[in-house]
Amino acid sequence: MRAIGTIALNVFRESVRDKVLYNLVFFAILLMGASYLIGQLTAGQDVKIIKDLGLAATSIFGLFIAVFIGIQLVAKEVDRRSIYSLLSKPIDRYQLVLGKYAGLVLTLAVNLAIMAVALYAVLAYMAWMLGPGALLGLDAPAFDPALLTAVGLTFVELAIVTALALLFSTFSTPLLSAALTFALAIAGRFSADLRNFNEVVDSPVAASLARGLYWVLPNLASFDVRSQVVHGQHLSAGYLALTAGYGFMYIAAVLVGATVIFSRRDFK
Amino acid sequence: MMAQGIVALLVASGLVASAAGLQYVREQKYPQPVVSEATLFITSGGALRRLTTGYRALAADLYWIRAIQYYGRTRISLTTPPAAGGRDGTLRYELLYPLLDLTTTLDPRFNIAYRFGAVFLAAPLPDGAGRPDLAVALLEKGLRESPRKWEYMHDIGFVYYWDLHDYRQAAEYFDRAAEIPGAPWWLRSVAATTLARGGDRGASRLLWRQLYETAPDERGRQAAGLKLLQLDALDQMEDLQRRIDAFTAQRGEPPRSWQPLVASGALPGIPLDPGGTAYELSESGRVMLSMSSTLFPLPVEPGPRVGPP
Questions:
Q1: Nearest beta carbon to residue B64 from set A45, A186, A226
Q2: Average pLDDT in the A219-248 region?
Q3: ipTM score
Q4: Cβ-nearest to A226 among B53, B57, B217
Q5: Where are the domains of chain A?
Q6: Most exposed among A95, B86, B161, B299, judged by the fewest C-beta atoms under 10 Å?
Q7: What pTM was estimated for this model as a whole?
């Protein structure tokens, strides 16, 4: 456990050294610029649009970090040949995989936490600028704690994508890993179509295959509660717990796969 | 090292400036064709929903901003005098409904898009598309998504009242809205008033007052506030006309200006409309709202109910 923690902290430090956190500057500039421009472009709805933009940007920035850092976790060590010195140390291969994963998830968590703080800061500023009268017609308050629910599920979604990127990086090249991870991330958002595939095809075999894929591929669409949160709709604790639980199980399954592949890989 | 960096920066800036210069010369010599703004590249809401998976709400915001910009640009074009380069005869808010439809398909709970959109679809040209049927269709779409939204039923009733002058349908929608739990008590009296008094000005004022007080945002409140001022102006003009007619009957000819009326004591001063602009007087002695008034043009009022409710 201690070895995993040490590796995770090193991955986090390396991410900071690689200037991954610079994306937060772009995020802040995007939100501040948008909060100014939106007032000029739209009739009211400034708060809704900032929430939509902030939550979508959180997801997009996080997705790019998860994929592009995730695919390099193992590949970089192999490229630099530092994998030999790592494996010669008294650590198991599974600890290396889990440590790398935990480090990137920690990087994502710090990123998302700072983005959430920035989003709340911009929303508080807008609420102050617009005054209480302009906020009366909103579906949800400007400074809505429920936004954290959307950020939380986005985090679990990104943790799944990170696990997939790590899995592919254990046996494939970075370019192919990126392509495969993006493909799964996109397919995961269309999972509802796979479930209802029998409505658009006549072939029972194709329908069964699609239904099988629906259960195997990550169902990422269920993590997207951004619209419900922005419109102030109630999300039951049961839904949140089951969705998060599904995410953790899926992550565990992917990490088991990554660990097995990495343990059997020959680096000679 | 520092000097090298500065030189590189200057060279890069010079090259960018040169590129911009070449672009300027090219645009002067070979003007780019003007891209028509009235174009929707994707018209299928279903296709857009798939393309924007995960970020539909943000895409809905972009279409909403586009709808607002389109409305504003078209309105300016229609209300700008031809001499000033305005009034493109081909513009008739054709894209307003498709844009609002896409917005609400991407985000089916985009409340303001239904309510704000319906107002401007129903309003007659140049303030709106003059398509109350599309306004009703948009609000009905909202109702399919949120059947408990009494505001949409109220707005449909309003379109039937103010734009279609169908008081029976209007009252029916007000009644339906009143039955929704949480709907305000005054909807019942609005329904009764509509059925009993049809389109008289008192009933209109009551409806606009409620719309003013329940408007979802400042712009909606301003639009309703403007209508209330216009109704006040109509009251004032009727009162002024009575005074002018009495003056004409007394003197045998209509007054040419406000001065004789003020001098005779029929008016305390030159009458101003609720927006602060002086009323005008025609040669035949008819009181008119100035075209420079912020209240111009006055709305066409729904006619009074004829026959039993």
A1: A45
A2: 92
A3: 0.77
A4: B57
A5: 2-264
A6: B86
A7: 0.74
